[in-house]
Amino acid sequence: MLTPVPFTKVKFTDSFWAPRIRTNRAVTLPIEYKICEETGRLGAFDWRKGQPHEPHWFWDSDAAKWIEAASYALADERDPQVEAQIDAYAASLIRNQLPDGYANSRFINVEPGAQWANLRDAHEMYCAGHMIEAAVAYFEATGKRELLDAMCRYADHMIATFGPNPGQKRGYCGHQEIELALIKLYRATGQRKYLDLAAFFINERGQGTSLLHPDKPGAYEHFYDLEARARNADPRDYWAKNYEYLQAHKPVREQTEVVGHAVRAMYMLCAMADLSAELKDDTLLHACEALWTHLTTRRMYVTGGIGSGGANEGFTADYDLPDDTAYCETCAAVGLVFWAHRMLQLTGQSKYADVMERALYNGALAGISLDGAAFFYANPLSSAGNVLRQAWWDCACCPPNIARLIASVSGYQYSSSGDGIWAHLYAQGEAEMRVGQTPVRVSQTTNYPWDGAIALRLSLEKPATFAVHLRIPDWCDGFRISINQKPIANTQLQDGYLVLSRLWADGDTIELELNMPAQYVYANPNVRQALGQVALQRGPLMYCVEQADNGAQLDRIILPSVPDGFAAAHEPGLLGGVTVLRGDAIALDESSWGGALYRHAAPSASAKQITAVPYYAWANRAPGEMRVWLRAQP
Q1: Is 397 a catalytic residue?
Q2: Residue 278 is among the residues annotated as catalytic for this protein
Q3: pTM here?
């Protein structure tokens, strides 16, 4: 098992991620704070009847994710003003926390007495989970314990309330999040009881079907049905109609298909992976592996986006991956990054890093504008020009979620183990880690993702023997490697990583060059929406064509049968500095049709040079059409 190198030990100095981290700190986080303040989210615990901005079920989670993101920024650079803002929120929460530890602004102020009556829908544990994550992040960034101690009291309240013992509730939250948060709380405090509660919630999920029906001896009913009847509601009125929506249709170890709400699924799978690691529970790992295979071979977009359906914000059917109506919630891509990273630490297999990179550079990063001030909730793969980023939503889970990912993105680059270091992602910067008892400093020089040339310089106090594992991405069809400028001919790949084992000395330099041509990506023929089409990729980046570069009617463009004619050119002044792909194509022409709707002669076509830009950067100019999938000549 691997140990991730914390983002506090990795400093990016590159031209891709470092500017985004600065923009996140200088623009995104202040904007999100202001909106949370103006909408009442930050004052929700002090709300009283008659005041505007009545707290919603999920408001506490929005404020908490902002605190978590801001805490990651504070860990990099302390800011007294931001700390004062977080301290004020913590004081408000603590002032209003109930004597038994309960802390939810909605149910304290608006629906007192209704706590834990609607676990299926009310998001109480979901909010609690995000607040716990925020408290842990703030404590680790500043050493301040007030918010952490308050969340420990809240978790202790849940321990007293939920469990298998007489008088306790056997339930679990409809929106997973509390489970992974409790594991973080366990790691921060060393208190095993929080890990045990997380395990209870995961183990209990889907087990509600074993509860006896209250009116029919010998019959069984789902926990959420019993809960609904207890609050005088008819379970048949549940809008989702079944509990696949919240992954409670069967016990987690029996689930083999990713179903339902995509974000809920990702958070649950993160907790399952964490519990597998902490409890050495291979049954949870095997379940995760089966669900990973199903997701990545049948229900994931080429951008790393997941969840094709808008009605359930989640999964529909195998190979159902439409481009124009793709939902691909930003939070779901962020969740996939979280889960992939955990699976990577458990297994050391590059397939998890490959998907992590795909989702990070494409599906997740598209969720925020280049200036850091606007966001996508859904991320389609084509647009008629009517899809625009927004500053906020009533349900605003995505803006602070992408903010916390960017603030901590350097923590996904490296891992260490007892006998080596692992480079998963490539970005210029400095990192400090340990191999066993040996401290190692890694300086990486690269222009990735625009260029495949990567150099790593090792700094050691004294020579040491260990392995350096360098990921060879799944998109790379060839590479060259040298150590101290001496080419290495005999290379060994292990689970997708190039393994270099030797006695290393201070100043040793590894030079890796990854082939990075423009490539076509084809979808499985079962993906009917992409039949006869291709997508452009270069390195980790998926590309798209926009009206701003190519004019309208992008669906008439037909690419040549091979991508050899596409040339990469870096444009420093375009979209914050991007490498574009330019090549020759043809475009269907309607000028000879004379207004006819049908005819027997095939359409004529004319030559057209097209320009493709990285998908993450689309919709940052004048509104217009966009497409990822384009027709290709057979």
Answers
A1: yes
A2: no
A3: 0.97
